[in-house]
Amino acid sequence: MSTATKPKHIGRNISRIRELRGMKQEALAIAIGVSQQSVSNIETSETIDPEKLNLIAEALGVTTEGIENYSDEAVFNIIGNTYHNTSSDNSTLIASSMNYQPTFNTVEKIIELYERLVQAEKEKVAYLEKLLKEK
To answer: Taking every annotated instance into account, which residue ranges of this chain make up the domain HTH cro/C1-type (predicted)?
Structure first.
């Protein structure tokens, strides 16, 4: 049995981040100047050339390191650490899930998320306008 670690599947990471950002393949394709089919091919590739990875990272609003080091486990850990169980018994997750309370001000987080989404949309519009002016 090999002890070598399996290389990260960059395409799968791009797909998951794109989905978490609520972005369709078509939108990413436009942002990086390729076809939707090319984005589909990228998302099935284990490796991607650094230049294209930089474009994709910029379009997704993350760093290349964020794409390379992305893991669902890390996201679930963040979500799991954001809540604490106030239930005094250790009943099943379904029964006790109603007792979970966020450890942050939800209204502030919603406003922060909204502001980031608005900023991301403004940046997308500016980028697309720039592309149109170049043509």
So the answer is: 14-67
**Which residue segments constitute the domains of the chain, with CATH numbers given?**
1-70 (1.10.260.40)
82, 104 in Cβ contact below 8 A? yes
Q: Is 31 exposed, middle or buried (0-12, 13-18, 19+ CB in 10 A)?
A: buried
Among 60, 57, 44, 34, smallest CA distance to 131 is for 34
| Per-residue pLDDT tens over the stretch 60-71 | 888 888 888 887
By CB neighbour count within 10 A (0-12 exposed, 13-18 middle, 19+ buried), where does 17 fall?
buried
For residue 101, what pLDDT band results from cuts at 50, 70 and 90?
low
**Single-letter residue type at 34:** V
